[in-house]
Amino acid sequence: MASPTNAGTRQRQPSLAQLRAFVAVAEHLHFREAAAEIGMSQPALSGAVSALEEALGVQLLERTTRKVLLSPAGERVAARARTVLEAVGDLMEEAEAARAPFTGVLRLGVIPTVAPYLLPTVLRLVHDRYPDLDLQVHEEQTGSLLDGLQQGRLDLLLLAVPLGAPTITELPLFDEDFVLVAPQDHWLGGRGDIPREALKDMDLLLLDEGHCLRDQALDICREAGREDGAPVTTSAAGLSTLVQLVAGGMGVTLLPRTALRVETARNDQLTTGYFADPAPSRRIALAMRSGAARQSEFEEFAAALREAMRGLPVRIVE
Known about the structure:
The protein is an alpha/beta fold. The chain folds into three domains: 4-99, Winged helix-like DNA-binding domain superfamily/Winged helix DNA-binding domain (Arc Repressor Mutant, subunit A, Orthogonal Bundle), CATH 1.10.10; 104-173 and 287-316, Periplasmic binding protein-like II (D-Maltodextrin-Binding Protein, domain 2, 3-Layer(aba) Sandwich), CATH 3.40.190; 175-281, D-Maltodextrin-Binding Protein, domain 2 (3-Layer(aba) Sandwich), CATH 3.40.190.10. Helices cover 43% and strands 22% of the residues. The protein has helices at residues 4-10, 16-28, 31-38, 42-56, 72-99, 115-129, 142-150, 212-223, 239-247, 257-264, 295-308; strands at 61-63, 68-70, 104-110, 133-139, 156-161, 168-183, 204-207, 232-236, 253-256, 270-274, 281-289, 315-316. The strands form three sheets. Strands 3, 4, 5, 6, 9, 10, 11 and 12 form an eight-stranded mixed beta sheet that branches. Strands 1-2 form a two-stranded antiparallel ribbon. α2 crosses α3 and α3 packs across α4. The chain is rod-shaped and about 100 Å long. Mean pLDDT is 86; it is low at 1-10. One of its GO terms (molecular function) is DNA-binding transcription factor activity. InterPro entries: LysR_HTH_N, LysR_subst-bd, WH-like_DNA-bd_sf, WH_DNA-bd_sf.
């Protein structure tokens, strides 16, 4: 059984300086070289290693007049000490990133009906203005993004609002109109004054369940007087497929203005029409956890995004 003195000795916590000194000796197996590497005097280095041995209650080194060797315990402790020092280094880097805005990792969640059309603007802004920011993009549907934000898997979301979530703060960016996309010979093609009521009896193609754009389109149809039971063909997981179905004559659909050029430019079998004012629209925003530690940083990011998006066919929310 260990004596009270020895037990108390082993309860003392080693310092980082002691671990750093020991790891240097373990790597060089030479006190003078180890001391030079970490900028300590040789007596101070030797004292730090001895203090570590005393704190741990084990012999770490075998010292002779000609060489220094690691004991079996010293080999195991050296490996663990390196891990501890690396973890402390990572901790300091994280703290530095927290002190300096727009550095470190930013995990951005984006919905599929926004990602292809707005990410070029977002990525260009980050590249040009925030070169030290490690932006990581996750494309998911709204429900999954909200779960990820609330669980801490994501830091910031780019999606359609309102969300109706009391624990989430929305930073509005812009409003954009919906445009009617129809087969080339459709009677509403080229119109700039389409009444919403025109949607009442059309064969409407929508995205699959789970896409917020589907819900927004259905809300617009209900406002136009379309009955909830009116047939809606749901057969597309993405806007590109949806547009191809329209080009094939299967019906019409609604696209947000930011998606229009990308999705219709590749097909000459389509026509577009614009709604009379006030046109149906959606609002796009950044969303963060209310009271987030990086709130001021995210607010500044939202302001920069608004400026960067002024060239898009949208109405910026000041």
